Amino acid sequence: MAKKIDISAAYLNLVEHNQRPLSRKLQKKLEEAFNVKEGELTGGEEARLLSAMNELFSDSLFERSRPDATILGDFVAMHPEISRALLKLYRAFRNAREDTLKARESISSDPYFTKTSHQLLTQLTSIRSFAEILQDNDDLSEHQRERFTNVLVDESQKLTLMVGELFDFINGESKQAALLSETPTDEVVDMLSANDHYFPILEQAAEELRSRLGEPKPYGLFDALANYLDQQLGIEVEVVPVSSQGTLLRGMWELKGEDGGTLRLMETLATSSLNFRMARIIAEVAYADVLENVLSNVPLSSKEAKNLCLKALGSYFAGAVMMPYSAFRSAAFELRHDIDLLRRRFRAGFEQVCHRLTTLQKSEEEGVPFHFIRVDLAGQISKRFSASGLRIPRYGVLSPDWGVQDAFLKPGRINLHSLRAEDQSVYFSISKTVTKPGVMVGQAGNTFAVSLGCEASFARHVVYADGVDFAHPDSVLIGN
Q1: Can you tell me the distance from the alpha carbon of 407 to that of 374, in angstroms, rounded to the nearest whole number?
Q2: Residue 449, domain CATH
Q3: In sequence order, what DSSP letters do the residues of 31-91 get, joined into one string?
Q4: The whole model's pTM is what?
Q5: Last residue of a domain, one of 304, 322, 340
Q6: What's the angle, vertex CA 74, arms to CA 70 and CA 78, rounded to 5?
Q7: pLDDT digits over 178-234, tens only?
């Protein structure tokens, strides 16, 4: 082994026993000589795997059986494959737990369930009252006793029917349940969550497109995408000046013509938005079969839900084209998830970068498990995803205790927040306002607050968390 990497056996022995550092030069020789994946010898992958295992055992489920840090570190080092299998199993359990909580939340907040529960209690009270009358009054006449007994039988039959209807509702078999089913948007959000916001087939398609484009640098991506649209798909790209804005039929952009045609983009759009629009059009035209392939494996109930899902998949593809998986993931760890630096390096928007960070779920090449939320000023949630384990409300508005709405008080600035969830897990997040441009020049755009966060054990990978004392999170318990 020493001969293969051109060092003495004595020096190799010292390196093996951690008495000499593993220099970058020696690391390179080992990687080349023994076909070792780049970065594996530095311990970076092991450290990230250990962080994920620490997250697993921080769950209250393991409160009485949490392993010692040294033992866990040795286990991860010696059994990385078993550790990954445990993480996969834990994530499946966490998803199942999340589904149970969602179902409970959905049922308990449903007006039909509330109304039926009240009727059940009323019915039971009535039956008990008549039963007590029969039990406590021995002097009732035969006629009175028969009348009360008949009432009890009738009320019991009504109760049986009511309980049956309630069980049908809970099982999703009643008319009421059908009328109160999820919206198309909820279906798409659940589909994305079920796939952990990661679609290998779309990642491969995005890599294929970039290779066809000649692996352009971020600053050259606009020209590369425009040329591909023109030369390969027969779609001419026209950047419309503000003076001609009124000719655009769909506000900021439009695609005119069925076969080929012209993609017209408003010049007031940011470069990141221009690139995103072009990449999504390429997805919908040149990679329509790939999108349909993903869609064919997704059970959706309506045409509207399928259209929304296709749009979401096209947007995923566009993000993967702008921020290639491996390069973006490496940069994310290198820059310690500094969103502004990542945004500049990949010529992307703040929200685009945050959203892309949630998609780094490739097995053995995962990123930090983040959660992502987007809300308006009223706290209405328009986007949500959680790989961090934090349970994001499915209905209603987001509580101010989460700190996301604080971003509206300091527009354009990054706000820091930590909170402790109901299960006592501590989370760190950042939030910032983003504004979508108005359709017309001078028209105010829509402003949202975007939040990106992770469980505290992963916060060391995030530059914004430096100096934060997680022993004293500044937020109250969620739900109180």
Answers
A1: 11
A2: 3.30.450
A3: HHHHTPPTTGGGTHHHHHHHHHHHHHHTSGGGTTSPPPHHHHHHHHHH-HHHHHHHHHHHH
A4: 0.65
A5: 322
A6: 175
A7: 434 457 777 888 788 878 889 999 999 999 999 999 989 888 999 999 999 999 988
Claim to verify: residue 196 and residue 163 sit in the same structural domain = no
Gap between the Cα atoms of 387 and 368, Å rounded: 9
**CATH code (residue 209):** 1.10.10
Q: Is 172 exposed, middle or buried (0-12, 13-18, 19+ CB in 10 A)?
A: exposed
Say if residue 39's pLDDT is above 60. no
Q: How far apart are CA 165 and CA 163, in angstroms?
A: 5
Helix axes 339-346, 350-357, angle to 10 degrees: 100
Query: What 3-state DSSP class applies to 338?
Result: coil
**Residue 224, phi then psi, degrees to nearest 5:** -65, -45
- pLDDT digit string (tens) for 111-134? 666 677 777 777 788 788 878 878
What's the number of domains the chain is made of?
A: 3
Mean pLDDT of 346-359: 95
Residues in the chain: 480
Q: Do 139 and 238 sit in the same domain of this protein?
A: no
Host domain of residue 121: 110-172
Q: Which residue has the higher pLDDT, 39 or 129?
A: 129
Task: Please identify which residue in the block is written with the tokens 């060092």.
Answer: 7
CATH assignment of the domain containing 168 = 1.10.287
Which of 71-75, 337-341, 438-442 shows the highest mean pLDDT? 337-341
- Residues 124 and 222 occupy one common structural domain: no
Pairwise CA distance, residues 214 & 221, whole Å: 10
Residue 91 Rama label (left phi>0; alpha psi -120 to 50; beta): alpha
Which letter does DSSP use for residue 156 in this model?
H
Phi, psi of 191 (to 5 degrees): -65, -45
Percentage of the chain exceeding pLDDT 90: 30
Residues 167 and 195 occupy one common structural domain: no
Nearest-angstrom CA–CA distance, 399 and 479: 8
SS3 103: helix
